[in-house]
């Protein structure tokens, strides 16, 4: 029998690359919430950004049909042709962007699309500009691909959006890439077309910089419609922008793991080469489900967005009434990112956002994510992918708890 000693490898036995990164804090918080629920606690989980709605029936049926028809084998590395064509049609119809088949790569979720992209363009030591607050996985994926994250901070006073002057100041001869995400996880804010154009004008002066626009929350937008990304605002950037999207959030399909990238042929080909070695192909059955999602009736998307908007209005309204909290309305997504600076109270052992999140868990059995996980301290992220009934209770519990700090 193996001794227990042999079950643990010494740190030095692991690659330096993996020791550089930390596990996903959003996923860790959700796992913690689940464990506490299983232990009988009356937890309300406002942590992970995952739609609470079930995947629409027609999409599930398309997957069942795919299994019955024997679509259970590897597919082409870059995805089935019909799905790639559906992505092309969707991008022309909804995004006013035009691509050919060899400009599209289907992958195992937007996370995988992003990782393939970073693997394809980031060299060791390359600087990657990441506006903060940022989604937790961007810096870690850049570290995993040997790049150097360069953060540009945008606080609440600037609606969590970076300015052209900040962008200009952050660009050096080592800058390889900028990551844009609008509407943003975690801030919920979206850049206007005018703001994107101004950022685009800076980028036009620096032709060595790639741009990735992570559009996965494009449909969860109530201000600033229609949705606009940087290529819409600045078409001259088409040749060096990769658009990332996914069916995860739009169609409540997080578990199906289908995302996609659209961009210049040479970079898509490089990403495909990486994918041929790291995954073979995305899941065949999920690809048929995604095909139905993109080509079927879109009423489900409008219904879900409407529900997120109602929940947003409620929870933001409640947070704005609470002492010590400052909360801006979001333009979209299913997140809100209030400042909790006014709640910090050393006498009660709450000196930062991490301790506040712990306090809310202990006092109110509410799970939220501390802002520092997204690169901006003194804030928390609340995700409202939960029923109105639970949100009403969550607001009551939070209100009661925070009164103890003020
Ligand atoms: N980008 C952002 C901004 C996200 O919040 C997420 C969260 N899942 C992803 C990408 C990854 O999505 P997917 O489920 O398609 O991998
Ligand atoms: N993107 C979601 C979130 O931020 C899902 C979890 C993850 O992949 O980070 O909560």
Descriptors for this entry?
406 residues; seven-stranded mixed beta sheet; 12 strands; globular; binds glutamic acid
Structure description:
The protein has a seven-stranded mixed beta sheet, with helices on both faces. A three-stranded antiparallel beta sheet has the order 9-12-11. A two-stranded parallel sheet has the order 1-10. The chain has helices at residues 16-19, 25-38, 57-68, 81-95, 110-121, 137-144, 164-170, 193-204, 230-233, 265-278, 284-295, 299-321, 353-364, 388-403, and strands spanning 44-45, 104-107, 127-132, 148-153, 175-181, 210-214, 241-246, 259-262, 335-336, 366-367, 369-370, 380-383. It has 14 helices and twelve strands. The protein has 406 residues and is α/β, with parallel strands linked by helices. Helix 9 links the parallel strand 6 and strand 7. The protein is globular. The longest helix is centred in the last third of the chain and has 23 residues, at 299-321. The model has no long low-confidence stretch (mean pLDDT 96). The chain starts with 15 loop residues before the first helix and ends with a helix. Helices cover 41% and strands 12% of the residues. The structure holds 4'-deoxy-4'-aminopyridoxal-5'-phosphate and glutamic acid (GLU). 4'-deoxy-4'-aminopyridoxal-5'-phosphate (PMP) binds next to helix 5.
């Amino acid at each position: 029998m193996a001794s227990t000693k042999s079950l643990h490898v010494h740190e030095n036995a692991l690659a330096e690359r993996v020791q550089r990164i930390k596990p996903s804090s959003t996923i860790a918080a959700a796992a913690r919430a689940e464990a506490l629920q299983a232990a009988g606690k009356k937890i309300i989980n406002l942590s992970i950004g995952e739609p609470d709605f079930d995947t629409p029936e027609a999409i599930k049926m398309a997957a069942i049909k795919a299994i019955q028809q024997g679509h259970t084998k590897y597919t082409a590395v870059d995805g089935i042709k019909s799905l790639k064509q559906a992505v092309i049609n969707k991008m022309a119809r909804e995004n006013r962007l035009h691509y050919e088949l060899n400009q599209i790569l289907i992958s195992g979720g937007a996370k995988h699309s992003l990782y393939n992209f970073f693997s394809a363009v980031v060299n060791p030591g390359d600087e990657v500009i990441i506006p903060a607050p940022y989604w937790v996985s961007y810096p870690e994926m850049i570290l995993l691909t040997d790049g150097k994250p360069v953060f540009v901070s945008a606080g609440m006073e600037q609606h969590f959006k970076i300015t052209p002057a900040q962008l200009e100041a952050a660009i050096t001869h080592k800058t390889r890439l900028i990551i844009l995400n609008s509407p943003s996880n975690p801030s919920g804010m979206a850049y206007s077309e005018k703001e994107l154009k101004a950022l685009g004008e800076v980028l036009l002066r620096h032709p060595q910089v790639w741009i990735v626009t992570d559009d996965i929350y494009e449909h969860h937008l109530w201000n600033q419609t229609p949705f606009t990304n940087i290529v819409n605002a600045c078409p001259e950037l088409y040749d060096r922008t990769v658009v990332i999207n996914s069916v995860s959030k739009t169609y409540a399909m997080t578990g199906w793991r289908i995302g996609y990238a659209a961009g210049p042929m040479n970079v898509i080909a490089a990403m495909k080469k990486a994918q041929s070695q790291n995954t073979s192909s995305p899941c065949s059955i999920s690809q048929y489900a995604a095909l139905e999602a993109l080509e079927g009736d879109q009423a489900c998307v409008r219904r879900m967005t409407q529900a997120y908007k109602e929940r947003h209005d409620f929870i933001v309204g409640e947070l704005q009434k609470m002492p010590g909290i400052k909360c801006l309305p979001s333009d979209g997504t299913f997140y809100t990112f209030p400042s909790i600076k006014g709640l910090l109270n050393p006498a009660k052992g709450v000196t930062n956002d991490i301790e506040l999140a712990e306090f809310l868990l202990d006092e109110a059995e509410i799970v939220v994510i501390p802002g520092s996980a997204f690169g901006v301290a003194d804030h928390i992220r609340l995700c409202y992918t939960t029923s109105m009934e639970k949100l009403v209770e969550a607001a009551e519990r939070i209100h009661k708890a925070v009164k103890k700090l003020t």
